[in-house]
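Hi R.,

Here's the input for the NAP complex you asked about:
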Amino acid sequence: MAIILSGRDLSDKMKQDYKKEIEQIKQKHNIVPGLAVILIGDNPASLSYVKLKEKACTEVGIVSHDLRFNADYKEEELLKLIQDLNSNNNIHGILVQLPLPEHIGEEKILCAIDPEKDVDGFHPVNVGKMMIGAPSFLPATPSGIQQLLLRNNIGIEGKHVVIIGRSNIVGKPLAMILIQKKPDANATVTLCHTRTKNIAEIARTADILVAAVGRPHTVTKDMVKQGAVVIDVGVNRIEDKTRKRGYRLIGDVDFEEVSEKASAITPVPGGVGPMTITMLLHNTIQSAKKHAGIE
Ligand code: NAP
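And here is the predicted structure with NAP in place:
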């Protein structure tokens, strides 16, 4: 049976460290990290992500500025708000929860955020820096996956990592992070998507298999090499009348059967999700330190 890679446990440990670090920064430098969290509209999934982020901020001592607006909030208003936040010295990170309503241009908004406060790592400047391996804010989900592997003593160097899914927030940046010429990376990466032929065959060659698709049962037992490490990024709601809320969350991987073959596997929930939030906290603290000139 596979070892369960608990992002929840690791995240709890990391948050304890962040709490201490923030306390020290506060005492020595009189700085409290601040994160602006912008949510437009009332998408239930976005609302629950935002609440989790805000809760995690409070737990470690980051001041979370919750900025919520109706779905008809105008693009110009949002751009003006971001400008104000860019020049506000108490704000070290700006997060715009995606997806945005259709009348707001996502790229325009992400480009308006000061790259020095872009703790999501989605600004093209940070994406470019990530590509060349320069210091930058790394997107939270892929860097959380990297930390989850490394802190569980799963080496990445020299491994064949197969990623299913090529989105700008998970698949592509994860590939970019893991191919860097660095000891905590140095992987050989294959990125698969809907036009990839023979995905099962490719998946079976993976030492580390990552599913970031958003479709239940995408990864089945026959697609996994004996002893591979399996990372399930997917979050899918499926109906479950036994639950009060009427649904439960499952990943992209057939957890039960794949865990018989894998050497390690992430659960859903409690795997990659908590790590995503933790890396957002990490980026916000780094930003606050940088703004205060702390090494
Ligand atoms: P996305 O933007 O919808 O991208 C999905 C990717 O999967 C696309 O590249 C798509 O290929 C590929 N794909 C879809 N069906 C496929 C199939 N049958 N075979 C091979 N590839 C297929 O999704 P995302 O934003 O990356 O998110 C993916 C999942 O991760 C979602 O369930 C999301 O909720 C979850 N997620 C979780 C976290 C977390 O913190 N736990 C964070 C982010 C996302 P094409 O490009 O060819 O269309």
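One thing worth noting: The first helix runs from residue 7 to 29.

Cheers,
M.
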